[in-house]
Amino acid sequence: MDLSNYRKTYEKRTLLESDVPENPMQLFQTWFYEADENDGVDEANAMSVSTIGLDGYPKTRVVLLKEYTYEGFIFYTNYDSEKGRAILANPKVCLSFFWPNMERQIIIKGEAEVLAENLSDGYFESRPLGSKLGAIVSPQSEVIPSREYLEECLQVLEQKYEGKEVPRPAHWGGFLVRPQSIEFWQGRPNRLHDRLRYTLTEDYDWRLERLAP
How far apart, in whole angstroms, are the C-alpha atoms of residue 10 and residue 13? Predict the structure, then answer.
């Protein structure tokens, strides 16, 4: 199928150096709030997480951002999954948010570290019962015999923990991605898009640069 004629004109907004703060996390928060309030964005916190696997190949998957602070970006996963093992072996990751209805994209490069256990415990405790049990029952990324196998394992766990607290399994928890660079992309006419990149310096200041589209 020839897609060469698929084109869209971007002309909703601009992104100028004079309009952005010194700290990229402030700009991220502004853009995130605007995306979250936009009716055309279903899940503003959905982001692509790219890693380098143990086989040397890159892989990207969509994960939900659960928290962001001035330290970085937090998401949760199974540490024994393909994604978890890849991050533990090579913590350099890339996060990407794309909000096409707003003609905006954010690309974050950084290093991931295992989140403190008390923070993972706190988030796990806030999850619905089904999500807690799902985190225990699913050997994420492993080959399983059938869908029925998963459902049978879930039934066993439901009986085991009926009326009881479900503890967070050791193989499940959060990652904190500390950003080294954050690029903001705003679509513009004639493919002359605005690209502003913040890079963390050795003095822990942010350097702002404009990139050619």
Answer: 8
Distance CA 93, CA 79 (A): 15
Give the DSSP per-residue string, 64-78.
E--EE-SS-EEEEEE
Q: Is residue 164 part of a domain?
A: no
How far apart CA 106 and CA 96 sit, in angstroms, is: 6
Pair of tokens at residue 19 = 């309009």
- In sequence order, what are the residues at sequence separation of 6 or more whose Cβ sits closer than 8 angstroms to the Cβ of residue 145? none
**Six token digits for residue 157:** 């766990």
Mind telling me the catalytic residues? Answer: 191
The answer to whether the CB of 187 falls within 8 A of the CB of 103 is yes
| Structural domain boundaries enclosing 185 | 17-124+172-210
**pLDDT by position in tens, the chain (length 213):** 988 888 788 889 999 999 999 999 999 999 999 999 999 999 999 999 999 999 999 999 999 999 999 999 999 999 999 999 999 999 999 999 999 999 999 999 999 999 999 999 999 999 999 899 988 888 788 878 898 988 888 888 888 888 889 999 999 999 999 999 999 999 999 999 999 999 999 999 999 999 999
Q: Is residue 142 part of a domain?
A: no
Tell me how far the alpha carbon of residue 18 is from its chain's centroid: 28
How many domains is the chain partitioned into structurally? 1
Residue 134 lies in a domain: no
Q: Strand, coil or helix: what is 63?
A: strand
In a domain, 156, yes or no: no
